[in-house]
Write a structure and sequence with these properties.
alpha/beta; Rossmann fold; 5-stranded parallel sheet; two-stranded antiparallel sheet; 12 helices; about 30% helix; globular; binds iron/sulfur cluster
């Protein structure tokens, strides 16, 4: 069986996606049998030159993880596209902009100033900020510039397949290995645009019982629950869970631990905007029977109890949200 040429490139990443691949334990040996690594700088001694020197489409499968945050990320993504027959967006950051895209929110304060100067924990008396160029032996080198926004890979290059998750869970990576095996043996690939994860919602695979009618009076944090019912859905217990709008595929990794889902697998195909879908679903659950008697002020008070609405409803998908699309027309790439 001919080995598959594989490249794993990265952008604005925490490298958790690389660790997830290594988390395969002994299965990683199957990967080494199946592929020839042409580029994986996190795990092996590769430089960008090694990717640039390859012939166009010499890489069979190019995997990219991390968001597009710098001019260098754009460059790497475009080289990967040029060198690869198919490109896979791997992880929530590459799929939806992920956590880095939370910074795309139009804050009153300039994000760059906030991070490098004003954040309370910052000790930077000389206001040092990242250089845009550096001189080495009289040679001026331009350094990667930080883009105004962090974006999903698909905003920059054509993407063939999507593997969501923060990071993608081992069973999903095993599915990717199966796809690679079929590709190596028969040259067959799934239809373009396929998402390698579940098609249903997380609620469909979560083991908790969801009552037919759910209502609750206030949002609480798991640590505030006096006695958690381990079998009952988290929503009627007052804990926000994005399961109804989130794609299945993790087997309820968080909900099993009494923690509400934050949606790292992104929305299902039917959902256009992950956060909006959940906000509308959850507000409709709020004390349904008494809603008419509840004043707007009372409802506001309940909603105000959500400590971080952006991080709760868009933790991984803000870069793909309709709200972001509406205000991002002026973004600079
Ligand atoms: S998807 Fe999660 S694990 Fe992967 S790079 Fe982004 S933050 Fe890290
Ligand atoms: S809302 Fe959350 S806890 Fe409830 S069934 Fe769905 S995934 Fe499970
Ligand atoms: S429960 Fe939600 S946040 Fe947790 S791993 Fe699954 S999809 Fe991701």
């Amino acid at each position: 069986m001919k080995k598959i040429n594989l490249a794993i490139a990265l952008g604005a990443t925490c490298a958790g996606c690389d660790v997830a691949i290594l988390d395969l334990n002994e299965k990683i040996l199957e990967v080494f049998d199946l592929v020839e690594f042409k580029f994986w700088p996190t795990a092996m001694d590769f430089k960008l030159d090694d990717l640039e020197k390859l012939k166009d489409k010499e890489v069979d499968v190019g995997i990219y993880h991390g968001a597009i945050r710098t001019t260098e990320d754009v460059k790497i993504a475009k080289i990967l596209r040029q060198k690869s027959k198919v490109v896979v967006a791997f992880g929530a950051c590459a799929n939806f902009g992920g956590i880095p895209s939370l910074a795309n929110m139009p804050y009153e304060q300039n994000m760059f100033d906030l991070v490098y100067k004003d954040v309370p924990s910052m000790d930077n008396p000389e206001n040092t900020v990242p250089l845009t160029s550096v001189k080495i032996d009289d040679v001026e080198l331009t350094l990667p510039g930080i883009l105004e926004n962090a974006d999903a890979l698909e905003e920059i290059i054509d993407v063939d397949y999507f593997v969501p998750g923060c990071p993608p869970m081992v069973p999903l990576i095993e599915q990717v290995i199966e796809v690679l095996k079929v590709f190596a043996k028969k040259g067959e690939l799934p239809p373009k645009g396929a998402v390698i994860a579940g098609t249903k919602t997380l609620c469909d695979e979560c083991g908790r019982t969801k009552p037919e009618k759910i209502s609750f009076k206030e949002f609480i944090s798991p640590q505030e629950v006096e006695e958690m019912d381990p079998d009952l859905c988290l929503l009627p217990q007052g804990i926000i869970c994005l399961g109804p709008a989130t794609r299945a595929g993790c087997d309820g990794l968080c909900t099993k631990m009494n923690v509400g889902c934050r949606g790292c697998l992104g929305p299902t195909d039917k959902v256009k905007d992950h956060g909006l879908k959940m906000i509308s679903a959850i507000t409709s659950l709020l004390e349904v029977d008494e809603e008419e008697e509840m004043t707007e002020e009372q409802l506001d008070k309940i909603v105000e109890k959500i400590p971080d609405p952006l991080g709760t409803f868009y933790r991984f998908t803000y870069g793909k949200s309709l709200i972001y699309k509406l205000h991002s027309e002026e973004k600079v790439i």
